[in-house]
Amino acid sequence: xxxxxxxxxxxxxxxxxxxxxxxxxxxxxxxxxxxxxxxxxxxxxxxxxxxxxxxxxxxxxxxxxxxxxxxxxxxxxxxxxxxxxxxxxxxxxxxxxxxxxxxxxxxxxxxxxxxxxxxxxxxxxxxxxxxxxxxxx
Length: 137
Hints:
By secondary structure, the protein is an alpha+beta fold. The protein has helices at 8-23, 35-41, 46-56, 95-99, and strands at residues 70-79, 86-89, 110-118. A 3-stranded antiparallel sheet has the order 2-1-3, with no helix packed on it. Keywords: Acetylation, Cytoplasm, GTPase activation, Isopeptide bond, Ubl conjugation.
């Protein structure tokens, strides 16, 4: 017996069910653990210990709670039409950058490279927001 082709109504119903599945994600992230807790989990397993060491490196945990978890150290603007990259060292006084300006020509493509250092814990997500303002003509 040959199978029948689905009708337009059946296809619409299947599409609606699939769309519902895509929007109802029931993912719940696991509880956040510190690096020390992660290292202590499988300390008896030599291969896992080496794997974690390869991923995390030799970790020295900063005990100072005043030090931010992520420190942005440098911002670099790379443009193919510029003579060289524009590097901004962000480790010093940031107030000096408010008075400093540079020219971004309209329509020119450029890339931004952000260098940062993570101090205490694993960073699971970061958000970058850029505001570009046009100064007087």
